[in-house]
Write a structure and sequence with these properties.
Largest sheet: 12 strands, mixed
Helix content: 10-25%
Strand content: 25-35%
Radius of gyration: 19 Å
Mean pLDDT: 75
Low-confidence stretches: 1-39, 60-66, 161-175
Order of helices and strands: HHEEEEEEEHEEEHHEE
Distance between the termini: 10 Å
């Protein structure tokens, strides 16, 4: 299935990003442009130091530029409505997933940007890639079970020929990557706002929530210590149905 994009932001949901794009909203003592310039100035050193050491130096510098994490949420209803379970603050290259039998009908990605490409999966955890998109989005139309993201900006070009020295870094999205994060968040869209519950080993609590009638869900979430945010996610972009 080839997704059809619906988006009023022409910069969002691109499959590729031009080399050298910068992360918005990231603050560090070294600017993104300075980091790129520093890394480019290191290129003549490649013939004088081992490639593994060069890779480590590049990674150290790029981490000043490329920081942050992504939220991956699996929703019970189409268009990212109802209740969801997923991972907040998911690190790069790590799969947030559900078992094949626990698939959800839609997925939402939050806290992303044009330099982060999120791959979404079916078939249990991150088994079979269904599609990939940039920025924040909501996608419906399949039995979704997994998601993980990768940075697709300047760092990937600089590390392309040394990535083999870091097989566990999951920089290339290899299927041999087995890093996995268990869901740690439950969200409920009441129609007026979003209730958020963050806890370890939360799948059991999610099942309890799903077994309750809608009239009891808010009271149950309040008792569990969930927080409330008024309004819905106005930045969410529906990219496929």
């Amino acid at each position: 299935m080839k997704p059809h994009l619906f988006n009023n932001d022409q910069s969002a949901n691109r499959y590729t990003t031009p080399a050298g794009c910068l992360l918005p909203g990231i603050h560090s003592t070294v600017s993104a442009l300075d980091s790129v310039q520093i890394m480019e100035s290191m290129m003549p050193l490649r013939g004088r130091i081992p490639s593994v050491l060069f890779a480590a130096l590049v990674l150290a510098l790029t981490r000043l530029q490329f920081t942050g994490a992504v939220d991956v949420l699996f929703w019970s209803q189409a268009n990212c409505r109802g209740a969801s379970v997923g991972c907040t603050a998911l690190a790069e290259g790590v799969c947030c997933g559900l078992a094949a039998a626990s698939w959800r009908t839609s997925m939402q990605i939050r806290n992303s940007d044009s330099c982060k490409s999120t791959r979404i999966y079916t078939g249990g955890f991150c088994a079979s890639e269904w599609g990939r998109f940039n920025n924040n989005f909501c996608v419906s139309g399949a039995r979704f079970t997994g998601g993980k993201w990768f940075n697709i900006c300047r760092r990937r070009q600089l590390l392309a020929d040394v990535a083999e020295h870091e097989p566990q870094a999951c920089l290339d999205g290899s299927t041999s990557c087995t890093k996995l994060m268990d869901p740690n968040a439950v969200l409920y869209n009441s129609g007026e706002g979003i209730w958020v519950l963050i806890k370890d080993n939360i799948l059991g609590l999610y099942e309890q929530l799903m077994n309750l009638p809608d009239s009891q869900k808010v009271a149950w979430l309040t008792a569990q210590g969930a927080t409330y945010k008024s309004g819905t996610d106005k930045e969410m972009i529906v990219v496929a149905n």
